[in-house]
Every structure is written in structure tokens, then in C-alpha cells.
Design brief:
With 341 residues, the chain is mainly beta. It folds into three domains: 22-101, Roll (SH3 type barrels), CATH 2.30.30; 109-172, SH3 type barrels (Roll), CATH 2.30.30; 190-340, Sandwich (Jelly Rolls). It is built from two helices and 18 strands. The chain has helices at residues 2-13, 260-265, and strands at residues 28-32, 36-37, 51-52, 58-67, 72-81, 84-91, 95-96, 109-112, 139-146, 149-155, 163-169, 190-195, 221-224, 234-252, 266-278, 284-291, 302-323, 328-340. The strands form four sheets. Strands 12, 13, 14, 15, 16, 17 and 18 form a seven-stranded mixed beta sheet that branches. The protein has a five-stranded antiparallel beta sheet with strand order 6-5-4-1-7, with no helix packed on it. The two termini are 36 Å apart.
């Protein structure tokens, strides 16, 4: 039922796909129905700023965010308590709001922090300071831009929960906050990626689906065929706007250390069913079966022609069979994906 409701909600999200800043700033004033327990991101894996306000208090609901781990909605809210102001996340159950009335936030891409950045709980100097800053060199995912600040997500060993989101000056990012960072600069523009599952390990952000589209050969998406059997495990990449798609390029397997040893230690796809989601549909269809070669002495992109598909909003890769790894036979890895018309 949760997956069904999630599918229904995508209709309202279609109207904001072209917005450049990740969150449509059509906020609503809503009331709380209990005290406001909060997280810095949409899920219990993120750190906790605290519990605020009281039942019946007014807050500004900015956007909705899907927690794919627990399959529930979270809401990004903005409010003041005392002399401090916060822009954080709370569970839908704590608010009197129609979730369909809120825009859904979007992943704006990967980036790197170029200099240590003062972190705040919102996009501006009027928001409370976070307990720790974001260190130089941190790889982040950008989830919003506003008022010269960027909402970034990264893994931080200095906090009790593995993931954290905070707002930092956009000037502290290598891209300057004006672009999508390390995401592909070639091929069709890609917005974000999802997957049926991914391996979390000690760093929950290490193998997330968005690693498929960051253009970085040292990062990758991984899932366990023990948990998510071959034939049902999949990843989907979403285009920035509906486009014609005719071919796909794939960096198959583990490229993280650039060695064939690392490549062979992990499993990699052999047969993939490539499906298409069109702008007028919620489903993936017209699957094309492709067979990937197993590299033997060097690593290279593999290109496959898929025929011409119009008005494509997303492409799904369903892993049917795989080459087993010598050390991790059931950990299936794809490093990068790019689409072309």
C-alpha cells in the first residue's frame, strides 16, 4: 500500500520537475498536532537537532521528502523558537497538512566543499548554528539552494548518526553553488537516481543510487543479490526533463581503486533489462535486454544502442544475471551510467 501511495504522489511532483533550485518555494503555514521531534534530513539515519514547540503551534511547511528506507514521507519545516530559527525535517504524522499540497525536494547533484564551511540550520545568518562545521574536502550531495546558501548532505563521523544535512554558503562549494557539481557534463542531463536497495555498510552514503550519476569512477552503487535477488534488483536514473533516449553507456563493476584486482573482487552485471518510463506513465516498460562484457585487462565504458524512445523521464536497469566476485560474489556493482539521444 505504501508503494501504491508513493506512485500516486508522483503526479503532483511532475509539475515541479523543471524547477532549478530543487525545492519549489510554495510553502504553507500549517499547525502541529504534537511536539515537533526533528532530524536534519528525512529519516532516522540523520542527526537530531532536538524537539521543539507544542501541539497547535504554527510552522511553515516548505517541501516533502521521501524516506525510501522506511517508505514514509517527511516534511521540511521552517520555524522559530525563542531567538533561534530552524529549517529541519519532521515526520508527516506530527503535522496537519495534506502531503500532496507540498512540492517534493530534488537531488541537485554532487559537489565538494572547497573550504571549511560554517553550517547553519537554514539558508541564512538568521538561522541557528550547527554544532560542527563542514570540513574542507567533504564530498556532499546538494538538496537545495536559497539565499546564497546550499543544503548539503554528507557523512560525518563527529556525530552520533551517520548522515547529516545542513546549510552552508554556496561559495564554499567547488562549483560555487551554481551547478550540479560532479554530475555528468556529457550525455543527457540527469537529475537523481533511485534503487530497489543498496548496501549501507559503515558509511550509509557510500553506495547510494546517486553514485551512479556523479561521473566519479571512485564511487559506485552496490546492492546485495542475497538481500535483493537477481531479477528483482534494479536502479533507475531520472532525467532533468523528458527527452529522447537512444543509447546508454555503463561503467560496469567496481572501479574504485582503478585496478583489475578490485574489479574482480566484486560482482558486476552480466545481463540487464533496460526499461523506460515515459512522461505520461508511472510504469517502466519496453525493456531492452543488453549483455555486458566482463573486462579482462582494462576498464572502459560499454555502449549499447537501445532504439529510439521518445518522452523518456527515467530509465531503469533491472539486473537479471551477474558475474560473481572472487571475494564478494553477491555484491553487485555499477560505477556510472550515462544516457544519450
Amino acid at each position: 500500500m505504501k508503494r501504491f501511495l508513493r506512485s500516486l504522489s508522483l503526479l503532483s511532483a511532475l509539475v515541479i520537475l523543471g524547477l532549478p533550485h530543487g525545492i519549489a518555494l510554495a510553502s504553507l503555514t500549517v499547525t502541529t498536532n504534537q511536539k515537533l521531534a526533528t532530524r536534519t534530513g528525512p529519516g532516522t539515519r540523520y542527526d537530531e537537532p532536538g524537539t521543539f514547540l507544542y501541539a497547535g503551534a504554527s510552522v511553515t511547511a516548505v517541501a516533502r521528502a521521501w524516506d525510501s528506507y522506511n517508505e514514509i514521507w517527511w516534511v521540511q519545516v521552517d520555524f522559530a523558537e525563542g531567538s533561534s530559527r530552524y529549517r529541519v525535517y519532521t515526520g508527516l504524522k506530527r503535522l496537519n497538512v495534506n502531503i500532496q499540497s507540498l512540492p517534493e525536494e530534488r537531488n541537485l547533484g554532487g559537489d565538494t566543499v572547497s573550504s571549511a564551511a560554517e553550517a547553519r540550520f537554514g539558508p541564512g545568518a538568521s538561522y541557528a548554528l550547527c554544532p560542527v562545521n563542514v570540513p574542507a574536502g567533504a564530498r556532499v550531495t546538494v538538496w537545495g539552494r536559497e539565499n546564497g546558501y546550499s543544503l548539503v548532505e554528507y557523512s560525518d563521523s563527529r556525530i552520533s548518526n551517520p548522515l547529516r544535512r545542513c546549510w552552508i554558503p554556496s561559495s564554499c562549494l567547488q562549483s560555487g553553488g551554481g551547478g550540479s557539481g560532479g554530475y555528468h557534463s556529457y550525455g543527457l542531463p540527469l537529475s537523481y537516481a533511485t534503487a530497489s536497495s543498496y548496501i549501507r555498510g559503515s558509511d550509509p552514503s557510500r553506495y547510494i543510487p546517486d553514485r551512479l550519476i556523479d561521473g566519479d569512477p571512485t564511487t559506485n552503487w552496490q546492492f546485495s543479490a542475497t538481500v535483493d535477488p537477481l531479477g528483482s534488483g534494479w536502479a533507475a536514473v531520472y532525467l532533468a526533463s523528458a527527452s529522447t533516449v537512444s543509447s546508454i553507456q555503463i561503467r560496469s563493476g567496481y572501479w574504485g581503486d582503478g585496478s583489475m584486482t578490485g574489479y574482480f573482487r566484486n560482482g558486476r552485471p552480466r545481463t540487464i533489462a533496460v526499461g523506460f518510463r515515459y512522461s505520461y506513465s508511472y510504469d517502466f516498460s519496453d525493456e531492452v535486454i543488453i549483455t555486458l562484457a566482463d573486462h579482462t585487462s582494462s576498464l572502459s565504458w560499454q555502449t549499447f544502442h537501445l532504439g529510439t524512445h521518445y518522452n523518456v523521464s527515467a530509465v531503469r536497469l533491472r539486473i537479471i544475471s551477474a558475474y560473481p566476485g572472487t571475494k564478494y560474489p553477491n555484491d553487485i556493482v555499477i560505477t556510472d551510467v550515462a544516457l544519450f539521444n
